[in-house]
Design a protein that fits this description.
With about 280 residues, this protein is of the alpha/beta class. The chain folds into 2 domains: about 100 residues, 3-Layer(aba) Sandwich (Rossmann fold), CATH 3.40.50; about 120 residues, Rossmann fold, CATH 3.40.50.720. The chain contains 9 helices and 9 strands. The strands form 2 sheets. Strands 1-9-8-7-5-6 form a 6-stranded parallel sheet. A 3-stranded parallel sheet has the order 3-2-4, with helices on both faces. Helix 2 links the parallel strand 2 and strand 3. Helix 6 runs parallel beside helix 7. The longest helix is centred in the first third of the chain and has 21 residues. The protein is globular. Bound molecules: NADP nicotinamide-adenine-dinucleotide phosphate (NAP).
Length: about 280
């Protein structure tokens, strides 16, 4: 067996062409230009790169973006005031607050101040609650991108046992909710989980979102499984060790070029959707 490569880079590229056409159509019909406001607090170089990649994607599909940069010393009150201003700016369709923010800031309070209509990165408690209930809401961008990738490759989820390693509010938890909504049987693991290897060995679908290089070992994963790796670490290493996997699993995401491009694609797709809906 040679695994099907779930090529997020190629899929994101072709979806960008569709998004570009959809933006042109919207503008030709007199609709407003989709504009994503990005907020970067502090000077973390990786965060700055991620924000730039998101802005570049907006430009590629004909959307606008507004870059807000705030110093590392920013207080919660200052950030809340900025978000409030963007919530009330009719030019802005979507708001991205780049995670993580400096530690003196109450990140949850800031995420939850983003208006639900502009929560195109899917970070609010309200959006997560709606999603968990199976109601319409913008999904958290990384799991939403993963779901688009799985759908594109017609990966069967219903009745399958999916294991999600990681329970963060922006990744593990919404990923589990989306898989559950798609009728998978879901196990969620975290740093206190016992017998990780035994649990992973039972899963048909393995999603790695632990933020630790190759913490999930290749020999834990059963033959024929679907392997989704959200991690990215220096040297192109993911959260899942890949040694020998390609020869015995049925599908896997490359690192890089799997989940990352689909995350950005979900963000800009949802920004277009927000622009179409208005508020
Ligand atoms: P995070 O907030 O640090 O959460 C990590 C999760 O992994 C936590 O729930 C933690 O458990 C769990 N964990 C840590 N060590 C573990 C262990 N030994 N065994 C089992 N679980 C363990 O990270 P995140 O923001 O969700 O990101 C996860 C990964 O996805 C990172 O590699 C990140 O770079 C990547 N990511 C990629 C994208 C993209 O666009 N491609 C976007 C976002 C994130 P506790 O809850 O018990 O602490």
């Amino acid at each position: 067996m040679s695994a099907l490569i779930l090529d997020g880079k190629a899929l994101a590229k072709s979806r960008e062409q569709q998004l570009h056409a959809a933006v042109e159509k919207l503008l030709a019909a007199g609709g407003r230009k989709p504009v994503l406001a990005t907020i970067l607090v502090g000077d973390d170089p990786s965060s700055a790169t991620y924000v730039q990649m998101k802005q570049n994607a907006c430009a590629r599909v004909g959307m606008g973006s507004a870059k807000i940069e705030m110093p590392a010393s920013t207080t919660t009150a200052e950030l809340l005031a900025k978000i409030d201003q963007l919530n009330n700016d009719p030019e802005v369709c979507g708001i991205l607050l780049q995670h993580p923010v400096p530690e003196q800031i109450n990140e949850r309070a800031c995420f939850d101040t983003i208006a639900i209509a502009k929560d195109v990165d899917g970070v609010t408690t309200q959006g997560y609650g709606l999603l968990a209930m199976g109601e319409p809401a913008f999904g958290s961008a990384t799991p939403a991108g993963i779901m688009t990738l799985l759908k594109h490759y017609q990966i069967e989820l219903s009745g399958k046992h999916a294991i999600v390693l990681g329970r963060s509010p922006i990744l593990g938890k919404p990923m589990a909710a989306m898989l559950l909504n798609a009728n998978a049987t879901v196990t969620i693991c975290h740093s206190r989980t016992e017998n990780l290897a035994e649990l992973v060995a039972q899963a048909d679908i393995v999603v790695g979102a632990v933020g630790k290089p190759e913490l999930i070992k290749a020999n834990w994963i059963k033959d024929g499984a679907i392997v989704i790796d959200a991690g990215y670490h220096e040297g192109g290493i993911g959260d899942i060790e890949k040694t020998g996997l390609e020869a015995r699993v049925s599908a896997l995401t490359p690192v890089p070029g799997g989940v990352g491009p689909m995350t950005i694609n979900a963000l800009i797709s949802q920004t277009l959707e927000a622009a179409k809906r208005g508020f």
